[in-house]
Amino acid sequence: MVGTDYVTFYAAGSTLLRGEGARLYDFEYQKNLQQDIVLLYKPQLTLGVGFPWRKLRCEPALLFAGAICLTLWITPHAMIYDWSILLIPAVLFWEKRPDCRGLWKVLFALIWAATFFSGPLTLAQLKILPFAVQVSLPILLFAFYNTYRNVVVSG
Predict the structure, then answer these.
(1) What is the spatial distance between Cα 107 and Cα 147, in angstroms, rounded to a whole number?
(2) Contacts of 67 by beta carbon, 8 Å cutoff, 6+ apart
(3) What is the pTM of this model?
(4) How far apart are CA 33 and CA 8, in angstroms?
(5) What is the dihedral of CA 7, 52, 56, 100, to 10 degrees?
(6) What is the pLDDT of residues 122-153, one digit of tens each?
(7) Which residues, including other chains, have CB under 8 Å from residue 50's CB and lie 6 or more apart?
(8) Which residue has the higher pLDDT, 21 or 2?
(9) Of the candidates 110, 139, 137, 134, which has an alpha carbon nearest to the alpha carbon of residue 122?
(10) Which residue, of 21, 57, 108, 147, is most buried by count of CB atoms within 10 Å of its CB?
C-alpha cells in the first residue's frame, strides 16, 4: 500500500511476532494483511470522523482536535510520549468551548493521572499476576466519550 508507512510497519511487525519472518517478502501475503488491517480500522474511522464532521464542519479547530484524539485512540502501540500530543486538542477545546472548562479540568486531570500512574500500576500487576490491565485505556475512552458528548452531541 503506497503512502501508508504505518500500516506497512505494523503488518511487518505482526508477521514477525507470529514467527513468520519468511513471509515478509511474500508480496501477496503482505498486501492482503495490510488490507485486513485497514478494514479493521475503517469502521472506527468512519464513526470517529464521519458523524462529528457533519455537525462540526464549520469549526475546523474542533475537527482537528478530534482527529488528533482519534489518531491516538486507533494507534495500537502508543507510548507515553505519544500521549503528549493530547496537549493540542486540550488547548483547542479549552479555547473553543470555554463553557465546558469545568469538565475539561476534570478530564485533563484524569488523563494526566492515567498516564502518570499507568506504567507503575502495570508493573505492579505483573509482579503479582500473570497479566496486567492497562488502566489508561478505559480512562482515555471515558474522557473521549465525555468530550464527544459535550462537543458534538450537545454542542
Answers:
(1) 8
(2) 49
(3) 0.60
(4) 9
(5) -110
(6) 889 999 999 888 888 888 889 988 888 888 77
(7) none
(8) 21
(9) 134
(10) 147
| CB atoms near residue 19 (< 10 Å) | 8
Residue 1 pLDDT level (bands cut at 50, 70, 90):
very low
Are 73 and 136 in contact, with CB atoms under 8 Å apart? no
Rounded distance between C-alpha atoms, residue 143 and residue 98, angstroms: 17
